[in-house]
Design brief:
700 residues; alpha+beta; 7-stranded mixed sheet; 5-stranded mixed sheet; 25% strand; globular
Length: 700
């Protein structure tokens, strides 16, 4: 073993990105390439009654305008959000109703602005309420989770509990907003299709395009050389890739479609708003007797997607009586989809806030309350945990953060008009692993090439996979080269669900370990073509486990709340994680800190408003949807406990991309309560919302 795994190796593509040579999907300058700009629908529900393209076609450089009347006919996709320009139906505001193709981006944009669309508008409904008459219980929530799980008599146990909290929380719609918008460049040549796309998984893109365009997969190559973030919104094909391929077929020219940022909230998914009701009952000793988590959310009328926000409550705490329920209303809204830590992020915000309220009700330290309710097995499945070191995370975080010196009384730390407080929350995220294949080649010059269709979405996957390969081969890291991001490579699942490295690394490890054994048996020089092996983890990586496999963590926050302006600022954030073996200390810390920063945004700045009159999101770009910037971040630290788990994969690793966000918002919200004595149950905690509640608490 070379010790490559665990080392803080620098990102392999770092110099390319800093130097500007890393090519993203819009940067493939193919001869004859043209640009396309979509036209979004201006009504929230209805039908297109007419499209006047004359003014658009008169714009210099405009080549054509695609509408439902002249666009290529496509096979029906499994995902109805991709059935673009196939009929006049408008399921929500922002749905694309035309596409302008032009020689330049500027001409395409001007042409799109000149298209005149008329509609037969219909009444729409976009307002979510827990009592909405259209609310129903689906068969499943996202991820195949049963919508309802019940054990014992939760209501009866709650009614007889010594301590009870019955509270409601609200998380608004949230948007992924990756730095690189959704972009694709498509080219048809001799009946073959080449696509460069910003996607978390090129294999899924190829499969969808093959079905929609009636083309054998072998005649399609999809690459994602570099991807500027996705956060779930690029987990499946989005409208950009279908429109680019459609326009390229229609015009006979290579076409790039780069979606304008302000269009993204309507067409690439969003975290649906979630309305939570938590009922926690406990004995005087703090042990939970009843846990009820009910979630209401929305979906679109064309695609059911139910945020699985009550699922974490099935994992976290020992409660003999429990009920978790998901309800959803189909409205005239854009289709929601995955956003970083779907289910866990909003669900754990509500659960961990309610646990803090229960600790206050009991007069108990919130860390001790969590420790007291540590389960012996996973409450939902009854399976033993492969490893669960949540208590160690809480204890280590408490020591490092200085929790023991905390005065538990709210509103006692004051510096002039500024109130200060601290809060804690736990975090969990499931371990997910999928089947993957990989190839490893030993070259006569002593170097090695590892090939796998993994996607590096900015997480450092190239680097970490090279480390896994070097360790399995027993060679220095600089002798291992990695190729990723193309359907011409051995197949692999998408980058999502914090499953990428666990899935790809398993295949890379197997391929390199086999190659090492072959080399040990080989005598004489290697053949000119080298020596290569392949690995397929089917039947192993995707096998059902006898263990409940999850990562865990603890988040700590210190906040300052200005009672004059209502502004809440986070001075310190600490995350301590139990996430198996850490494969690269540098990239892991970056992932944890990035997730915590996103959680801070969820707590304080991020949120979208659905305009009931117009049926669209008011905050449609980064001027109005406020993500955290450097000035918003104070001291932020990420640590981890050493965790060995032999029930995961050959590396002993768990996913780390999403657990950093999961408990952060609750820790900050709990800290704001500790600072002010006022409990806030709706995110984000913006100055206007905080100041209004502070004034109300003082009787104005």
């Amino acid at each position: 073993m070379t010790g490559s795994v665990g080392a803080p190796a620098e990102r392999r593509e770092g110099h390319e990105k800093v130097g500007g040579t890393a090519r993203y999907a819009a940067e493939f300058h193919i001869p004859g390439r043209v640009q396309a700009w979509p036209v979004p629908a201006g009504v929230a529900r209805g039908r297109v009654s007419g499209v006047d393209t004359a003014a658009a076609l008169a714009v210099p450089g405009v080549l054509d305008v695609l509408t439902h009347e002249n666009a290529p006919r496509l096979a029906d996709p499994d995902d109805p959000t991709l059935a673009l320009l196939q009929n006049p139906r408008v399921p929500h505001r922002g749905w694309f109703v035309a596409l302008v193709v032009a020689e330049t981006l500027e001409a395409a944009r001007a042409g799109a602005a000149a298209v005149r669309v008329t509609y037969d508008a219909e009444e729409h409904d976009v307002a979510l309420d827990a009592s909405h008459p259209g609310v129903y219980v689906p068969e499943e929530a996202n991820g195949g989770h049963p919508a309802v799980r019940e054990q014992g008599d939760a209501d009866g146990a709650f009614g007889s509990s010594a301590a009870r909290v019955d509270v409601a929380y609200r998380v608004p719609p949230l948007h992924n907003h990756p730095m690189e918008p959704h972009t694709s460049t498509a080219r048809w040549e001799d009946g073959r299709l080449t696509v460069h796309t910003s996607s978390q998984g090129t294999g899924a893109v190829r499969a969808v395009l093959a079905g929609m365009f009636g083309l054998a997969k072998e005649r399609i190559v999809v690459t994602a050389e570099h991807v500027g973030g996705g956060f779930g919104s690029k987990g499946t094909p989005r409208p950009d890739v279908v429109l680019a391929v459609m326009a390229a077929r229609h015009t006979g020219r290579p076409v790039t479609v780069a979606l304008p940022r302000r269009y993204l909230p309507a067409v690439v998914g969003h975290r649906a708003p979630t309305l939570h009701r938590l009922r926690l009952g406990a004995g005087a000793d703090g042990r939970l007797t009843s846990l009820v988590h009910e979630v209401t959310t929305h979906t679109s009328r064309i695609k059911e997607f139910t945020e699985q926000a009550a699922v974490p409550a099935r994992v976290m705490y020992a409660a003999p009586h429990s009920r978790t329920v998901h309800r959803v209303a189909a409205l005239d809204v854009p289709s929601p989809s995955w956003m970083r830590a779907p289910g866990e992020a909003p669900g754990m915000y509500a659960l961990e806030s309610a646990m803090d309220e229960l600790a206050t009700e009991l007069g108990m330290d919130p860390i001790e309350l969590r420790v007291r309710n540590e389960p012996d097995v996973e409450p939902d499945s009854g399976k033993p945990f492969s490893s669960r070191h949540l208590i160690e995370c809480l204890r280590e975080g408490s020591r490092h953060f200085g929790w023991d010196g905390r005065d538990p009384r709210p509103g006692t730390r004051r510096d002039g008009p500024v109130l200060r407080g601290t809060g804690v929350a736990a975090a969990t995220y499931p371990v997910m692993v999928g089947r993957s294949t990989a190839a490893a080649l030993a070259r006569p010059d002593g170097t090695f090439l590892v090939r796998i269709n993994a996607t590096d979405i900015g997480t450092g996957a190239r680097t970490v996979l090279a480390q896994v390969g070097a360790d399995a081969l027993g060679v220095p890291l600089d002798r291992v080269r990695i190729e990723v991001g193309s359907t011409e490579l051995p197949s692999a699942p998408l980058a999502g669900g914090s499953s990428g490295t666990a899935s790809w690394g398993w295949a890379v490890h197997e391929a390199c370990a086999r190659l090492a054994r072959r080399l040990a048996e080989h005598t004489g020089p290697l053949p000119g073509r080298g020596l290569d092996v392949r690995a397929d983890t089917g039947g192993a990586a995707d096998a059902e486990s006898d263990f409940a496999r999850h990562a865990f963590g603890a988040h700590f926050a210190e906040v300052a709340v200005d009672t004059v302006t209502g502004e809440a600022r986070v001075g310190r954030l600490l995350g301590v994680y139990a996430a198996g073996r850490i494969l690269n200390a540098r990239t892991a810390r970056s992932q944890f800190v990035g997730g915590m920063t996103m959680g801070l945004g969820m707590a304080l700045t991020e949120g979208a408003t659905m305009d009931a009159a117009f049926g669209d999101f008011t905050e449609s770009d980064l001027a109005s949807y406020h993500v955290p910037v450097h000035a918003d971040i104070g001291e932020i630290e990420a640590h981890w406990v050493e965790e060995e788990d032999s029930h995961l994969n050959p590396m002993g690793s768990k996913g780390i991309g999403e657990i950093g966000i999961v408990g952060t918002a609750a820790a900050i919200g709990n800290a704001v309560h500790h600072a002010t004595g006022v409990r806030f149950r709706e995110l984000p905690l913006t100055p206007d919302r905080v100041l209004t509640r502070l004034l109300d608490s003082r009787g104005r």
